[in-house]
Amino acid sequence: MKFDRLITVVGAHAEGEVGRVITGGVLPPPGRTMFERMSAFQREHSGIRDLLLGDPRGSVNAAVNLITPAARPDADFGMIVMESDYFPPMSGSNLICTVTVALETGIVPMREPTTRVRVDTPAGLVEVEAHCDSGRCKRITFRNVPAFVLHRDRPIEVSGIGTLQVDVAYGGMMYCLVDAGALGLSLDRDEARDLVDLGEKIKAASAEQLPSVHPENSNIHTINQTEFTGPIVNLGGVKTSKNAVVVSPGRLDRCPCGTGTSARLALLHARGTLQVGECFRHLSILDTSFECRIVEETNVGPLAAIVPEISGRAWLTGISQYGVDPDDPFPTGYRLSDTWFR
Q: Could you tell me the pTM of the whole model?
């Protein structure tokens, strides 16, 4: 066996969503900030993302994360998230996976019962409390970067659907939020394929018709995903709701989605539905959950914003080493529309 390169990856999932973590074989990219490093990696080394996520080594139903030294002095380490179509500035499920892997593999020393970690992401600094017991990371609670609403109750025209009223909010990436009930959807598992088909159409239409730019970083200007939202019900005194996020190029997030949850918390707060400190439980299409609350109000540029806190769990699934045989005709993988849908 001969490989041109060998990359070590620790597998994990957060409440069902697969987030693999590179622990060896990839050098950190240059840059003064994590956003600059993410941009440099995307520009110069996106083939590594393609190698690990594309066929024949990877899967559309996964993301991969690179742990790097922190760019800022008050952080413990940096993180770059790689999804199939995007390098998003932040991802909650991937953060939960990455911190869990960092602690359980000894990259970051574990302290029981609580390990506090500060993660430098391209979206900003994220403060994490890892709840640990008997050498295991039992739960991750993180305060995300500020979340805010960019568009409320805006009509868009969607091919095959017609006029649809949507909202756009940022929670670490940009989301177009849609009331699932308005489309006759209940967010059951058997709707997964329909949700993906509709979500990709809605995302494309909203990105074209509702320009959305982060007020403090003009390089964040793309609506990445559609988030279908279910009704809010009171279960045991906690406001609870289901959601389903469509991840391009065509799959559902298996977990409740940390940045999507953050975006929804900002929208609920803007509508007066959720107050600072009030508990909120967000469910995935698998009925796994994130426990959430709004920590405080703040501002991002001229926009009112909130600081969200999200809590969820991750589990390690294995350790793999990936490589490229010098004779392999697919050194950076490939995609076929039977699974990638585009």
A: 0.97
For tokens 């999200």, name the residue.
310
Catalytic residue annotation: 91
The count of C-alpha atoms lying within 13 angstroms of the C-alpha of 136, restricted to the half-sphere facing its C-beta, is 8
| Strands (DSSP E) found in 124-219 | 124-133, 136-143, 147-158, 162-170, 174-179
**DSSP assigned state of 123:** T
Question: Residues 127-159: pLDDT tens digits?
Answer: 999 999 999 999 999 999 999 999 999 999 999
Q: Which of 342, 250, 339, 257 is nearest to 59 (CA)?
A: 339
Distance CA 18, CA 64 (A): 8
pLDDT at 4 over 90: no
C-alpha closest to that of 160 among 183, 187, 186: 183
Contacts of 128 (CB under 8 A, 6+ apart): 95, 99, 116, 117, 118, 119, 140, 141, 142, 143
Distance from C-alpha of 146 to C-alpha of 294, rounded to nearest angstrom: 10
> Residue 243 is encoded by which pair of tokens?
């959601």
Handedness of CA 118, 82, 222, 153 (dihedral sign): negative
DSSP 23-35: EES-PPPP-SSHH
Kindly list the structural domains of the chain, giving each domain's residue range(s) and its CATH number in brackets, ordered by start.
6-143+316-340 (3.10.310.10), 147-311 (3.10.310.10)
Stated length of the chain: 342
Q: pLDDT tens across 289-309, in order?
A: 999 999 999 999 999 999 999
* DSSP secondary structure letter of residue 90: -
Q: What is the mean pLDDT of the chain?
A: 96
In whole angstroms, give the CA distance from residue 268 to residue 241: 12
DSSP state of 36: H
